[in-house]
Amino acid sequence: MDFINSLGALALATRLKRLSDKLGQDVSRVYKEQNLDFESRWFLVMALLEKKGTLSVVEISDSLKLSHPAIVQFTAQMHERGLIVSVYDQFDARKRLISLSDEGKQLMTKLKPLLAIIKEQNEAWLSEAGSDFLALISRLEDSLGFKSMYERVTGAINQE
Description:
CATH topology: Arc Repressor Mutant, subunit A
CATH architecture: Orthogonal Bundle
Radius of gyration: 19 Å
Structural class: mainly alpha
Number of domains: 1
Number of strands: 3
Shape: globular
Oligomer: single chain
Strand content: 5-15%
Strand order of the largest sheet: 1-3-2
């Protein structure tokens, strides 16, 4: 028996995190076995920088809807690995502008065939589940954007 599953909706966040962790670990393992020095957690930042060019940490955070500290952590790791370059904005020394390095661009080129396979396999896996999981996630995200879980819980507490 899986204790977390037995908690039902009470453990929703934990189940989603567990699923996310498993997918990330599996994909990172594939990268390693393909001799690619790359972590799955960097993908979104790399893909965004490839598409948009140079962005600030705040712009990356806003675009991906991830926390500022998470982006700072990812970009520090990516900088250490040589995948990005960063410079301070000439007009605002507090603002760091980040872009892919030549090595980062080359890695993205190497990743493209593998990313196509990952996308194809994700789509097949989701199809096997027999529901439009991505649409459901979008609806759930929109719903929390309208009214956060914090607001929902505290509102219920205050009604008592």
